[in-house]
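Meet our chain:
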Amino acid sequence: MGYNIQDVVDIHRNMLSNNIMLFYEGAFSQDIIKSVLKFTERKLEYIETQTSVKKKVFNVMVECLQNICKHVESEEGLIDTKSMFMIAKENGDYIVTTGNPVNNDKVEELSGILRKINEFSEEELKSVFKSLLKDGTSKDYGISGLGLIDVARKTGSKFNFDFKDLDSNYRFFILQTRISY
């Protein structure tokens, strides 16, 4: 009957010791995204005094959550149980982590896009972003490229990412970015 109480206590301690503000796993819809954003906005009002930092964190969260909602693989059962979002605070920085299933066929392309974005300088990110805004999406960055480039511009940090095997057709794509100020 239920979970072992000690397991629940251990999870709570782990979240506290790692300064995890929010962890959500499950289905992502526009209503869920609104709720997550509202909760985090309230939490930021309480713990963060700098308006510019709150705005930057909020904007990055919106883009990351929208990417999950738009691009999660719609294979039956995967949307409801496999996507996740987490925000934590570490040494004054905010860490936004997302995860969702992707088809194995998309891993190489997505890895290439992220590696390319990580290699860009701040000025190159700005130039590519402006070009994509003007011309729309490109074959080099796919439909999620504009959002990823925007996140890279706003955070000023490189993406940390990985793909973990789920089954023979899918991998779990983990994307993490750091918002420093």
About this structure: The radius of gyration is 17 Å. The chain has a mean pLDDT of 85. Residues 1 and 132 are 53 Å apart (CA to CA).
